Predict the 3D structure of the following.
Amino acid sequence: MHKVTGIALAAGVAFFSNAVFAEPVSVSSPDGSLKATLDSGADGLVYRVEKNGVPVIENSELGFVFRKAAPFGKGLKIAQTETTSFDDTWEQPWGERQFVRNHYNELKAVVKENGADGRAVTIVFRVYDDGLGFRYVGGDDAFGEAEIMDELTEFTFAEPATAWWIPSREHNRYEYIYQETPLADVTIAHTPITMRTKSGLYVSLHEAALLDYSGMSLLKKEGRTFEADLSPWADGAKVKLAGAFKTPWRTLQISDEATGLLDSSLILNLNEPNRLGDVSWVEPGKYVGIWWGMHLALNTWGSGPKHGATTEETKKYLDFASKYGFKGVLVEGWNEGWDGDWFNNWNLMNFTTPYPDFNFPELAEYARERGVRIIGHHETSGGVTNYENQLEDAFDLYEKMGVRQVKTGYVADAGEIAREEDGKVFQEWHDGQYMSRHHEKVLIEAAKRKISINSHEPIKDTGLRRTYPNWISREGARGMEYNAWGSPPNPPSHTAIIPFTRMLSGPMDFTPGIFDLLYEKEQPDNRVQTTLTKQLALYVVLYSPIQMAADLPHNYEARMDAFQFIRDVPTDWSESHALTGDIGKHATFARKERGGNDWYLGSVTNEEARTLTVSLDFLDEGKRYEAQIYRDGDDADWDTNPYSMVIEKKLVSASDTMKLKMAAGGGIAIRFKALAD
């Protein structure tokens, strides 16, 4: 139940239908530490943000530019306001925490052009203790049918800062190593972009609830001023409106400590509640799959003597999954379309016809008998019209075969999604409005058949898993596969950066768990730049409700002692707490299993060895635990000795502290097994 718990203005709901405000209007967070102010002046409509009275965002413009209509920005006045408070706790069907508090103060301000026939929109601010979001909302008569050519929303940062960011509008979508530079050196960046200001404040800028709109990048203007830069359609329009609209929320997560960003639920809270109803059919869990062998060039997606997705090979993976307690087996390359130049030919893929050496009905029954599900795979090669033309038949087939999860793929260079219309092919962006609409369509069609979606090469995450809980995970960053063939592979610092950047937006299917870290025979020029222990820690640090044990089965059976942690660790949690954090250096999480009493801890470091001391006060008071510790050996080093690991046990309680000793490029993974009273 959602409830309004108070009204911020003494006169009740303040709604001024025929007033023009001479003073700016403001709204503060429930604890009073953050304040957002909306102001109209000679230069147009602006907003600003303060924390504890100190500017974070200085006066920054708002508004739009249209293709065939006058701009909406100058000559605006605040005509009406309403301020309310909201405090509610809601339950996630799955997630990093079971219950989420949604506590904010809200300002709705109707801004209007001068004149009786002036256009009007509502600007909504929601201010939380850990950040804020604001958006534009327009009724049917706001702009009518229109094309937005530019969103004028600015972000003028009050202080110099160090920024962690990846470039936007580049060919490789979101799959880049993060740069650490002065904010002044950022050109155009994907969001989330995270920064530490000169005075030590942590700020992450992103967006929430990206539906039927184009994704926002952060474009440098001058000084410390940046603008919301929207991905265009092929014809140059940024957004196509057809009446009433809501933009995504423009979000700022703000914290005195880096760990405050990690614990924030702001992005999730700014999304609308579940639209799908009963989603008990969404199944968190762990999976294995026919995947890593292709990246090592041991197998092929296409047909031939090295074809990976054969009936025989799939049965081996199903047997392995059943034996060791995995819920699913991902099978890539099962369908016709992979032969030839599929990367540059968007209409090759056939989503209902298996290769002759893949007996789908037989394998579906084989999986059912063993209590395992086949995880489907739809690689579009960027041919979205081709995919949509087959979408319903493809999902019907998966439903018939007992498939409950589908990994979708959109492998194409940025700006090269293929949209066909009236016999012509247009190239669109992965994060444009066209793809925003497409992903929602896929979710809706999948939900009709009780199927969840794990999208790779996706549109970025903006918290829509709350609204569509079958959007169970996605990629959207440099994942494990870059360690097989990337030039260079992911550096040790990578997984100490993405918790503070990409993963502030939501779960990532990073595909951890590689045990053969060197694979010198298969790919001698590449390797995984971590210790073995760090691979275990990633299952706790990098949250996803579905986690892959990504390596080849025989590599796990060769190291059964370490494999035990992967078998034990859950993917669905009742609580999560960030214990330590320093962007690019280290990150530590403690998480409690949902429906049980055990806790898990994961900690990772960058290229530097380090020892952290953490309190175990997150453990349940009055309980005793057996800490099953997987740590780097004293001689471990990601470069020279990555396999050195010590597994040990000790009794602990909430009153204890623990030293987390990690090698260079290493980590530590701990299961706190609750003991019977």
Summary: The radius of gyration is 25 Å. Residues 1-20 have pLDDT under 50 and may be disordered.
